[in-house]
Amino acid sequence: MPAELLISRQGSTLVLTLSDPAARNALSPEIYAAGTEAIGLAEGDPQVRAIVLTGAAGHFSGGGNLGQLQAVRGQPQQQGERVDALHRWIEALRACPKPVIAAVEGAAAGAGCSLALACDLLVASREAKFTLAYGRIGFSPDGGASWHLAAGLPRQQALEWLWLAKTRTGEDLQRSGLVNRLCAPGEALATALALADELAAMAPNALASVKELVAQPSPALADHLDRERDAFVANVNHDNGAEGLAAWHEKRRATFR
């Protein structure tokens, strides 16, 4: 079976499943394009409140297909186009105003690991294996791995992981603060869906504001405080802000749209 991105709905959550079990869900430009398109469609669908990215048959993704990469070696323009396609998907995940959750079982290697790190929240099985093996074959990373690790870890830890290319477990990433939920093997998707349901109960406009503020913090505190002020005022005056205040006064659970 060819590699494909399976798209399904679980309530208000869009589930994107990387599927090429024979190759541990290896990635390809076609998968990148399908993923970018799916994120765009989800962004425009008010019925979708969260997105979960997972893999089929016990693995998240083994990363890019090295056989295909070998076939285009010596063709830098084609190589660059393939990487650009991956990076468009990474940028779409980060720019989407809706929460994106990775549900990781088994291998998350290379670009597959980069994809998991690019998601807003990360759920991992205790038996998940995160590998950035670029250094073992004389490569540097793609898919934003160096950016996300530099942002999420002390410089020394990020460099050690990228240079020495050692495999990390879900427990390792949780200790480093990169994993939000650690679960039993086989439970990553269910755990991620439960987390998505929690987020679906929140005001989507407020979630989007927080994601933007955290994703693009202003270098100067004064500038960031201005952005926080503008987002706060906009959300207070949104219909969901009115509903939240009414629910608080009436001592009931808010219903956000």
| Major β-sheet profile | 6 strands, mixed
The number of helices is 11
**Helix amount:** 40-55%
Low-confidence stretches: none
Please give the alpha-carbon distance between the first and last residues: 40 Å
Radius of gyration, in Å, reads 19 Å
Beta-strand percent range = 15-25%
The side-by-side strand order for the widest beta sheet comes to 1-2-3-4-6-9
Shape: globular
Q: Overall pLDDT, averaged?
A: 94
Q: By helix and strand content, what is the structural category?
A: alpha/beta
Spell out the helices and strands N to C: EEHEHHEEHEEHHEHEHHHH
Number of strands: 9
Oligomer: single chain
Main attributes of the structure:
257 residues, alpha/beta, six-stranded mixed β-sheet, three-stranded mixed β-sheet, 11 helices, 9 strands
Descriptive notes:
The protein is an alpha/beta fold and 257 residues long. Helices cover 49% and strands 16% of the residues. The protein has 11 helices and 9 strands. The strands form 2 sheets. It has a 6-stranded mixed β-sheet with strand order 1-2-3-4-6-9, sandwiched between helices. Strands 5-7-8 form a 3-stranded mixed β-sheet. A hairpin with a 2-residue loop joins strand 1 (4-10) and strand 2 (13-19). The longest helix has 20 residues, at 76-95. It is globular. It starts with a strand and ends in a 7-residue tail after the last helix. The mean pLDDT is 94.
Helix and strand topology:
Layout: E1 4-10, E2 13-19, H1 29-43, E3 50-55, H2 66-71, H3 76-95, E4 100-104, E5 107-109, H4 111-118, E6 121-125, E7 129-131, H5 145-152, H6 155-164, E8 168-169, H7 170-175, E9 181-183, H8 188-200, H9 204-215, H10 221-236, H11 239-250
Parallel strand pairs: 2-3, 3-4, 4-6, 5-7, 6-9
Antiparallel strand pairs: 1-2, 7-8
